[in-house]
Amino acid sequence: MLAALYAVLPLVWLVTSATKSVGDFSTTGAFEFGQFNLGANLSALFSQDGGVFLAWIRNSLLYAGLGAVLGSLICAACGYAIAKLDFPGRRALFAVTLAGVLVPTTALALPLYLLASQLEVVGTFWAVFIPLLTNPFGVYLARVYAEAAVPGEVLEAARTDGAGELRTFFTIALPMMRPGLVTVFLFQFVGIWNNFFLPLVMLTDPKLFPMSLGLYQWSTRVTQFPQYNPLVITGSLLAVLPLVVAFVLLHRQWRSGLAAGSVK
């Protein structure tokens, strides 16, 4: 119950605070509703700075949605190859992948920036999007799930019938890996949606910011301009909603994918 309260109470605070005006923040308690001002807050949120928040929503959906789909497919292909294909250096490749899980993402920011600078993509959509397509932890999960969920006999039967490796992967292995793929997708989606440091390093144009970075920029103005306070809180509430929806819609397959192999 304590852990549940620790997770839920910030969301409750967001809901109550998003309904308050600037004056209500100093006259009401943290979990009290003030004069219902949610409509005005939403209107101000979408009109502030020329409606840039709509661009932040679009960017976050592109980064997280498209990045999670493509990244999950890449992770599934890599995990399947390591688990089911016999090629030289397979174990060494998996060891390197595990080592990549241990490297914090902030440690990679400077090397990624230098690479993006050489490719002349700093300050563009691609400087943030391309690095998000790789995830060593996703490859590890896909490898574990492919090992447990894809029988080798089925793959041998497909090859005997003349199916190539790509067709075997897309038509046979990938459907069997679907619960594990959902788990990888959720980890990718949440990680990219909450990604902050990489856009902070790569981007300078506010129109390319994701919501996490854009709301942070607004939050730095709260001390001088209190009118930004309800905007930041209302925007944070909207930023949380897609994560809640994704977990509610996919939680059954996510749980089964996360527990794959636990009873084997």
TrEMBL record:
The chain crosses the membrane at residues 61-83, 92-115, 121-142, 181-203, 231-250. It is a multi-pass membrane protein. The keyword Cytoplasm does not apply. Keywords: Cell membrane, Membrane, Transmembrane, Transmembrane helix, Transport. The keyword Calcium does not apply. It is found in: Cell membrane. InterPro entries: MetI-like (IPR000515), MetI-like_sf (IPR035906). Residues 57-249 form the ABC transmembrane type-1 domain. Gene3D superfamilies: MetI-like (1.10.3720.10). It comes from the Bacteria. PANTHER family: ABC TRANSPORTER PERMEASE PROTEIN MG189-RELATED, ABC TRANSPORTER PERMEASE PROTEIN MG189-RELATED-RELATED. Belongs to the binding-protein-dependent transport system permease family. This is Carbohydrate ABC transporter permease.
